[in-house]
Amino acid sequence: MLIFRYPWFIYSFLVPCYGSLKPGFSQLQRGHRLDRKLIQSFTELSFLDCVIECLVTPRCKSVNYFKGANFCELSYENKTTAETMYMDNAGWVYSEKEHWPKGLAGACSNSNCKLNETCKHKRYSEDKFFECVLSDCGIPDQKGIDLNTTRREDAIGIHRRIHASCAGGYSQSGSGRLICQSNGEWKYDIVCEVTVPLELAFGKPAEQSSTYLTHGAEFAVDGNRGTDLILDNCAHTGDGDTNPWWMVDLQAVYSIKSVRILNRGMDEYGTDVSFRLRDVTVTVGLTESDVNTPCGFFAGPGTLSQLVVIDCPTSPQGRFVKISKTTEYLTLCEVDVLGFSL
């Protein structure tokens, strides 16, 4: 398109049906570009054609344009949503989609293309003025993948590829290359396996055999790591319960590696009954009615604010984790269940 060579005020005469182009040109960011958020790139395009490519691509939020080579890049983020990727770069021009009139997209301005599609004009069709075709494979969401290692040229568009690695706590196998196939699906050459167990119990439903006053089971998985029973509301079973237990529903089946119990500390009245944490058994089960698979045991007695770690050598699989003892009172200020997804 030759109109790129003229000043912005001439556009108002050349393309009156599009509305004013002045807002778009007045907000160009010269000497800047958005890095490593590419959908697709194009060669031999004018600047306005680059903007139009963004307007007809629902996922596109901004463009980078290199004037010296007529090179266009479409990005799925903008400088607001990816601030750290916005940088100085001589020769480049940065512009955002929202600064341009939708009318520039022609018939595609009213398209219903999906997020991973782009609108293409159909010049010789009698019944349809545009069609939607796949534009990209979307943002990879495979568990454990870290996209902060992508390269400058990486893009998520059809027939493009990106380079990824595994996040902390995961081990990697494969080259790390992801290829966007013509069907809009990623082909992964990377597998990320968990090497550090996850904490599984926080905020999950919990119950116990009895309750002392208002010290319900939920206080052992509320994230409060204080150990003053009164101020911090630890879970506590009731008087006369000589076979107390506490149980959490992880809401999915996991391989359990260990259970950590934060014992009661000194309260504001100077009471120390931390020794009550003794002869504690941890079991695991697939169903609420059968939580009998051994995990580990703590003989005790516990000490003030002690973090008791009970390992599960056999890594039993289960959805429910139960802590029980055979003497009166079970007090748990916080419980962590560590394990791996299956």
Short description:
By secondary structure, the chain is mainly β. It contains four helices and 22 strands.
Give a structural overview.
The structure is a single chain. The relative contact order is 0.11. The chain has three domains: 2-108, Hepatocyte Growth Factor (3-Layer(bba) Sandwich); 145-194, Complement Module, domain 1 (Ribbon), CATH 2.10.70; 199-341, Sandwich (Jelly Rolls). It is elongated, with a radius of gyration of 30 Å. Residues 1-18 have low confidence and may be disordered. The chain is mainly beta. A hairpin with a 7-residue loop joins strand 17 (280-285) and strand 18. Strands 13, 14, 16, 17, 18, 19, 20 and 22 form an eight-stranded antiparallel sheet that branches. It has a five-stranded antiparallel sheet with strand order 1-5-3-4-2. Strands 9-11-12 form a three-stranded antiparallel sheet, with no helix packed on it. It has helices at residues 8-14, 22-26, 47-55, 229-232, and strands at 29-34, 38-42, 62-66, 71-75, 86-96, 117-121, 130-134, 145-146, 161-163, 165-166, 170-180, 186-194, 198-199, 206-208, 235-236, 245-262, 280-285, 293-298, 307-311, 317-324, 331-332, 334-341. The chain is built from four helices and 22 strands.
Fraction in beta strands: 35-45%
Radius of gyration: 30 Å
Distance from first to last alpha carbon: 55 Å
Q: What is the level 1 CATH name of the largest domain?
A: Mainly Beta
CATH fold node name of the largest domain: Jelly Rolls
**Can you count the helices?**
4
Largest sheet: 8 strands, antiparallel
Helix and strand succession?
A: HHEEHEEEEEEEEEEEEHEEEEEEEE
Q: What value does the average pLDDT take?
A: 91
The percent range for helix content is under 10%
Number of domains: 3
Molecular shape:
elongated
Protein name: Fucolectin
Subunit structure: Homotrimer.
GO molecular function, one term: fucose binding
Pfam families: F5_F8_type_C_2 (PF22633), PAN_1 (PF00024), Sushi (PF00084)
